Amino acid sequence: MRFVGRISGGVRMLRNRLVRARYFRGHGVHSPFVYGLVREVFMRRTLLPGGRGLYEALLAEGVSERRAVQLQNLMIRCGHATFGMNRADAELCVATCAADAGQLRAMAAAAAAEGRTFVVLAPYVASERMAACRALVAGHRSTSVDNRAYLLLFNNGLPKQHFRI
User: Fold this and answer.
1) Taking a C-beta distance cutoff of 8 angstroms, is the pair 61, 54 a contact?
2) Quick one: which of 4, 50, 51, 100 is 20 to 30 A from 73 by CA?
3) pTM of the shown model
4) Is the pLDDT of residue 6 over 90?
5) CA 120 to CA 75: how far, in whole Å?
6) What SS3 class is residue 35?
């Protein structure tokens, strides 16, 4: 019985990796904006010149250093001057693990209304959160990027596309 569970879990993980493999290192991404993100944000290991406020706040929340570097670089690359943790009143809105599904929906709606970038940390941490994130992507009108550790919802007028990297 346990053996069957391990096989089905392994098949799910393999499928997830195969779906994401087509965008490895930006290959197959037909959006110059997202290609730039992959090459200059996701693949970069060091911080870009600029502020460090988001980086320090993410580390204090328990986010890994690699992901904190990526999100700080995203903020710099996109030209955002302000960020907010678990609130939608800044240019870059970040929902931590403390936000429940209802709060995610409310923050995503507020960010979309104001044209702000919305980040959901740990979208796969629980089944309820995963379902909420899938619903956010389905109802989102612009580009979204799923990077396993966080979900990015851009509200900058780009066409509706979803990338799983």
Assistant:
1) no
2) 100
3) 0.82
4) no
5) 14
6) helix
- The rounded mean pLDDT for the chain is 86
* Residue 141, token pair as written in the block: 């009108």
Angle at 146 between CA 107 and CA 43, to 5 degrees: 120
Residue 49 phi, psi dihedral angles, 5° rounding: -65, 135
Q: Which two tokens stand for residue 2?
A: 């346990």
| SS percent in the chain: helix, strand, coil, step 5 | 50, 15, 35
**Coil, strand, or helix at residue 132?**
helix
Question: Would the CA dihedral through 123, 126, 128, 131 be positive or negative?
Answer: positive
User: For the segment 44-85, what is each residue's pLDDT rounded down to a tens digit?
Assistant: 999 999 999 999 999 999 999 999 999 999 999 999 999 999
Query: Residue 116 contacts by C-beta under 8 Å, 6 or more apart in sequence?
Result: 88, 90, 91, 92, 93, 110, 155
Mean pLDDT on 4-20 = 55
